[in-house]
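Something for you to look into today, if you have time. I want to see for myself how the chain folds. Leave the record below and I will have a look.
***
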Amino acid sequence: MRYLFGLSPADVTVEQVGEDMKLRPGSEGTVWDARSGGTRLTDLTDLTSVPATTVTSDSNSVIGFYGPDGISSLYVDFGYDERYLMSARDLDAVSSVNGYSGTVVLAAADLSAVPAAEKAAASGVATLGSDAKVPVEQIPDMSATYVAMTQKNAASGVAGLDASSKLTGSQQLYSATGTILSVGSANAAGSANSAARGDHVHAGVTSVNGSQGAVSVTPASISAVATTVVGAASGVASLDSGTKVPVAQIPDLSATYTSVANYGNVWAPNDHGLIAWTLDPACSSSNGTQLSAGYIYLMQVILRSADTISNLTAVIGIGGATLTSGQCLAGLYSSTGTRRALTANMSTTWNSAGDKSMSLTSSYNAPAGKYYVALLFNGTTSPYFACGSTFGSNFTPGNDNLSAGSYRFGRSPAAGNTSLPTSITLSGYTPDANNIYAGVA
């Protein structure tokens, strides 16, 4: 059975504009089974039972849809890195209990439980006292298994032990014509004629690691490393207080790695205070490029090591005009097409020229790898973004030797996008000739 979600006065899509909250009709969102992570739910229908994979608010900004069969609560995501819980509105009353319907009366056996009347009763179950122990009166006679306390230290009984688990001084092990051994006495060896003297040799160590006789133990004989070879030639490396190999013990790696000094005077992203960029902005063309409305543009950056990304950057030569609020956005996607971060509305940022540092709504701790900076414009006139070469749709040298799904510069296959979705299919993106400059910081 599919349950109905939404259609209440609270189930509307809104957008914060300044200090105001405005209705946002036509907003499209995705549905998930958890507030974070989890699995996306795509087996949905609209209010007329037409299958759907996303939910869209109507002209009055109201959300209404049917969820997957049997699902009574779920989460919706409208692209602001936040999921909201929705519960079904048409949940039925209880129809059955443990497989019974109608007027149900359950007994203990129906629940695999023990009736309360069987507590402390014959053939029932034992109770526990306030000390969480079975009361003495419910314990059977155990004299055949245990020795009664009255036999402790008694004649023909059992010997007691002191606090160190030893026989007490009054407990004699054996008595003959004289005392052979009396525990706790000054003469531990006893004084009888038959007592053991110094001519009796007690057993000592019989073997060491399987060897007998005069055994000499070395580090090698116990599979150990001598301390004399730690940090020595042909030995083993030591570790410093930070659990790292000291620099003095690291070999010359120049044949494997390039020294930072070898970069000479070449500018790198970190010289601009950036983590990575799509290209050196100093190599931008003279004119820049405009975006086509409703298309999502992707520009690839590479992180050689893990870092935290908090801002995206771009350079605008001429500001845009009449930009659509809430539909001019920048974001960050992984190499698998998953959106990792998003900016707020950029319509009031892209309407002027200059360097644009665009804060993400939340920072992203990015592992090393490839990522895409995404740009989306909607409005009357696009801004002019700094870019490298722009040779036309049939000439895309920025994607040399790259294939679908891994283009360095790409564009969505169709227009009409008003937001940056939580996931995209990279293999469907076309190579783009606009080698747009973008950076991450």
Remarks:
- The longest strand covers residues 354-366.
- Residues 4-87 form one domain.
- The chain has no helices and 27 strands.
